[in-house]
Amino acid sequence: MDEMTTKLYDVEAIRADFPILSREVHGKPLVYLDSAASAQKPRQVMDALMLAYTDTYSNVHRGLHFLSEASTDAYEAVRGSVGSFIGAASGDEIVFTSGATMALNLIARCWAEPRLQPGDEILISIAEHHANIVPWQMVAEKTGATVRAFDMGPDGAFVMANLTDMITAKTRIIAIPHVSNVLGTVFPVAEISKVAKQAGALMVVDGCQGVVHMPVDVIALGCDFYVFSAHKLYGPNGVGVLWGRADILAEMPPYMGGGDMIDRVTIEHSTYAEPPVRFEAGTPPIAEVIALGAAVDYVTNIGMEAIRAHEQDILSYAHQRLSSVEGLQLIGTAPGKSGVVSFTMDCAHPHDISTIIDNNGVAIRAGHHCAQPLMDRLDLPSTARASVGVYTTRAEFDVLAESLEKVRRIFG
To answer: What are the structural domains, with CATH classification, of the chain?
Structure first.
């Protein structure tokens, strides 16, 4: 990070916005390095959530009274702000879901299932989160399609030839992460989208680990769908975003039936509302969507370019600092990686590592990270994973490294 960016990025002021970061764990200051699993929430988001319940709460879209109209206005305003945040052509391309998992299942069920034929192929990477594997498997079982996975490079880097060599005339869908939640590899989405278009395939991006770490412009990326979860973007639980091209959404049937997603209902037949409401059956998470808007405002005010520069500095330092720990192996060292530092130690299982350093107040993730095919490919049962956020400091990786030295003393 250059000197000017360092001066502008006030990480201590940002940390002050997150009340939980001031607490202690086991008598030690909390070092939270598990943001990839779920990020902590700034006061601004929690205030927005509480205000939505205490000042304007009512059901949306249906009421004609003041509170309903106020709640509807606040809820729908977030559609526009999220659309602007990711460069959508319109807020009407933003569908609110319960999370990225639901969004991916919606695409699989409503776009893929009616269209795929026996022998059609769904192409994914070996580095996918289970949420970008299992829905495609379920659709493949119903339609006779096949799920195929391309490999990553030795350092965890994306290799275009590994993808293009697997594309056939039967490739109908290419689904990838923007950023691997284990390797931190940033996939060149715009380039892959061009390949998908040339192949006549739908392009789906799991953006859970992308939208939180870098600017996103879905039009420039050229994809057809982009999904992410609010809780990783410093927002509340239970909310996700599905962005889809308007023409594609218009061709898709609803995911669930119920209130609000209809046009006209009779006992014999129903007609459906236009997107995005078509895909939002029932009472939505009103206050949580409004709080998502506050989260988008929060990171926008910091600046996504500034966030990326800060986190790149932290990741560079983390790799340098952890490489000095005897017996530690970094997993995923692709240039330009983002978000996470996965590692193993030759003296201890990742679960033991996590348990021991927790006594020092250090929170990391240990396990397969919902990426078992990747673990199988790496011939590892699991890894330890430290992940960064807007509030992460170099000093926290110093504490992690010191805690890992304690692990070595105990097991080594």
So the answer is: 3-32+303-411 (3.90.1150.10), 47-301 (3.40.640.10)
